[in-house]
Fold:
Amino acid sequence: MKGTIRLKGITWGHSRGYTPLVACAQRYEELHPEVSITWQKRTLQEFADFPIERLVHDYDLLIIDHPWAGCAAATQCVLPLDEHLPAAYLAEQRQHTTGASHESYYYGGHQWALAIDAATPVASYRQDLLAEPPADWEALLQLAEKGKVAVPAIPIDLLMNFYMFCIALGNTPFTSEEEVIDNTTGAAALNMMAALWGRVNPQLFNCNPVAVAELMTATDDYWYCPFAYGYSNYARRGYARHRLQYADLVTVNGKKLCSTLGGTGLAVSAFSAHPQQAVQFAQWAVSPQVQASIYVEHGGQPGHRLAWEDEEANRRTNGYFRNTLPALQRAFVRPRYNGYLHFQDHAGNPLHHYLQYGGHEATVLNEMNSLYRQSRKLLHA
Structure:
C-alpha cells in the first residue's frame, strides 16, 4: 500500500541542506511507493544548539555534524551503520571520501553517519569586481584595508578560523589534554586574526557564512571573502543577483591555509520504527550515482568525491567543486570526543569579544583552556 512506511527526517534550513533531501525523498518514493519520507528543517543556529540525542525519538533520519560522533558512540542513540550496510558499500565510500568527510563519522570502532555533504572554509570573490583575488596574507590585508573584504565573524566561525591560524603557525590544536594550543602559538594566532578583523566592517561580527554570501551577491560593497564555509549555491546561475567565484585559500609563509572541515552526515535513529527502510534510503541517497545527479542538481553539495569531480556538477557551479576540492582534501578534522561540543558551543565567545574590543591574549587563551578542561571532564564522566 502506498506510503505505509512513514519516515521523518530533520535537517538544516538552507537550500544546500534541505532542497536536495526533499528531491531525493520524492524520487525514492517513486521508486519505492510503500515508503513516504518527509523532511523538516531548522535554522543553522538550532542545528548547532539543539542536542541531536533529543531529536532521535521524533525522527528516523538525522543530518548531523561530525563532532557529534563521540556523543553518538557514548549514547548509542543512532545506529552503527557498519552493522547495517554492506562492507563493500562502506569501502567504496571510504575510497571516494571528500577529504576526511567519511572518516569523520567513524568513531569508537563504528560508522555513525554517511557523509552526505562536504564543506570547509574556502575563498570566494566577485569576478566582475575583482579580476585577481589575493594570493597571500599580505595582499589580503591590503585589500581589507580598502574595505572590500567580508569575512564571517560570529563566535563559531571565529573558533574554526582560530584552529586554522594555529595550524598555519606550525602547531595543531588539541594535542594536549590541558590546553587547546600552546600559549606562544595561540597568542600569535590571535594577533593574526586581530590584524584582519580589525580592518573589516564591524557589522560582520553578526554574520555567518550565509549572511556574508548574501551580502556579497546582493550588493557591490564587498569583493572578496578569504575564508567561509563554501556554498556552491552562490556559484550557480540565477541563485542570487550575482554569482560568486570560489577558489582555494591564501598562503601564509608560503603554504596554503588549512581550514576546518565542516559538512554533514546522514544518520539513522536507533529508535526508528523502520530502521531497515531508513538505512536503505540513506544508502541510496549517499550513493555516487545519486550524489552526482539528483543531489547536485537540486542544490546539494555532495560528500562523495566522484560528484566533486563530475564535469556536469562543475559546469552547473562554475567550477566550484574542482576549484575548492584541494582545500577540502587537507582540511582539519575537529575533535569528536563526547564533551567536545560543550567547548565548541562556548569557546568562540572570548574570541568574539577580543576581536571586537581588544584585551589580553593570555586572558582569551585561559578562558578557552578552562572550557576545554571542562569539556574533557564530560568525556570521563
Summary: The chain has two domains: 5-119+262-329, 121-260+334-380. The mean pLDDT is 96. Residues 121-260+334-380 form a domain with the D-Maltodextrin-Binding Protein; domain 2 fold (CATH 3.40.190.10).
